[in-house]
Specification:
By secondary structure, the chain is α+β, with helices and mostly antiparallel strands. It folds into 3 domains: 85 residues, Double Stranded RNA Binding Domain (2-Layer Sandwich); 146 residues, no CATH class; 84 residues, OB fold (Dihydrolipoamide Acetyltransferase, E2P) (Beta Barrel), CATH 2.40.50. It has 11 helices and 12 strands. The strands form 3 sheets. A 5-stranded mixed beta barrel has the order 8-9-10-12-11. Strands 1-2-3 form a 3-stranded antiparallel sheet, with helices on one face. α2 crosses α3. It is globular and about 65 Å long. The N terminus is likely disordered.
Amino acid sequence: MAANMAEDPDPKTALNHLCQRCAQRPVTKNDIVYTVNKFGQLYQAIVTLNCVGGEQYAGESKMTPKEAEKAAAEQAVAAHAATLANLPPPISKDARHAERKAALAEKRERRANQGEEGVEDIDDANNPAITPKVKLNTLCMKLAQTYLKKGETIYECRQVVGGFQATVKLACLPGDWSGRVWAGEVSSSKQKAEQSAAAVALSQITGDDDLSKLASESQKGFKGKAMMKGMGKGFLKGGKGFKGFLDWAWQRGKGKGGMSGPDLPRERITEEPSTGEVVEWKEKYGWIKPHTLPDHPASEARNGMVYCSCQDIEGYTEGDDASAILTKGQVVRFHIYIDPSGLGAEEVARQ
């Protein structure tokens, strides 16, 4: 137990790691639930571990709610010290990568032997970043031949009978297309509803001969456009269409002159703000470790840390000195998004 606490000095972080080891998957906000009650001038917290049979642990009374939550987490970690010691060691990142690579190679070989079409699309199916919203953003950038600005893709979601339904409007499209609105199917969550609307829009746009031709011509003209300055032959080597663009962005995202982290096509995956601790901050970017990881395949990458650019910090304007805008150990609130390079933080606010 002492060794684990030394690696994870924050009890809540240690508890997150314990639950991940027990559940053998990333924990979600519903897996670990803290309830804080005030008694006079003191606070006491109870932590419920829904991922471990709903077990509950109460901490000592503290002066602040945060300290009370940490005290409850300490009790939960202490109670499971023996369990944690007997768990098998976590699978290393390299081992997971090797397993995925081997599985992908097996799928390629099997489909090739069966003569199936679309072998080149297996990467897309296994890439959690390539969603209908990301594909739609990529197509819109090809048509507009520039970065998408705020307000050029507008999603609106409302609760209806049976769940949620979303619409999307793409002001960046040419002509009458900029005024059209696409509605998706009724879905169980806002995220799925937006994905459905994006899929409907994507299907209709790619089915139009004029827009398909324009997108194809725009792709050829990427090299000379300011948006893709520095891309050069890298894009052509990546292949054609969405896969070529996203492969290039994934491999060259931070290359000189290429699209950088904050400029890649992104999609928000959290409905409620998350909290976390700044692990490292460099001149204009850094890394945040969420207190609770989202339920997403990409959560396993980067040891559970998410990328943060100064552009996504509330109150920052271009030209400000970003070197000290965040500090190591600082607690922040943010939303989590996915882009071709992994998880990132946006709308970051200091606590």
